[in-house]
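Exam revision sheet. Question 4 asks you to relate a sequence to its structure. Input first:
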Amino acid sequence: MASMLLTIVVPAFNEAERLGRTLPKIFAWLATFSGGGRLLVVDDGSTDATGDAVRAQMPAHPNLDLITLSQQSGKGAAVRAGLLAASTEIVGFMDADLSTDLQHVPEAVAAIQNGADLVIGSRALGRSQTVLRQPAYRRVGARVFRELARRVGGLPNTPDSQCGFKFYRGPVAHDLFGATVIDRWMFDLEILRLARHRDYTVQQLPVEWTNDPDSRLRLTVDTLRMVRDLARIRWRFLTGRYGPPGRLA
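Answer key, structure tokens:
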């Protein structure tokens, strides 16, 4: 494993059925990746057979690993556990539904090898393609979210922070995720704001993206959590909890 270039982390909560479809696609792609790649699934306290679905694949795929959290802690917590456990030169995460096409992984790897510290998939760029759009109410919610991020979270002109496709230089991922505390949906914004605070280079990547109608986001409950977590992020910056500015990795 030490000679591998890349680790892809997939956070999963009750994803047994979906992983049955997407894991073979990831394995097929990894088989073509010349740098050598590892797949790490983080089971976020699932109550279905997610862990069993992954373990069933492990004998045939020695580059597959599984981390199991004792209880559901949130996507941010699952991503953090996976990226902090990774030891390769480049690490990143993708959603279990593969809504962002795997074809963009080599582009993200190349961007990091050419000097970027973080590469984030963005559906907002002109060259991005959306195969299946979100319903209208979700698009309205996204605009509201961006305004909340600006006003409450203190993030100016936030890019498409919620696209589940982000890759990092390994030491940068360890620095950022080792210093952050948000466990649920707002972890992406905390990471991006801290990356700016640390003066890391963030590169946006146009992606082909397909909406999955089986979203785990609950607009009523999760919106309140988002506002709370955005306020927490802002307060932690105001009180110096993230340390002085400047690069650490």
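Marking note for examiners. The chain has one domain: 6-238.
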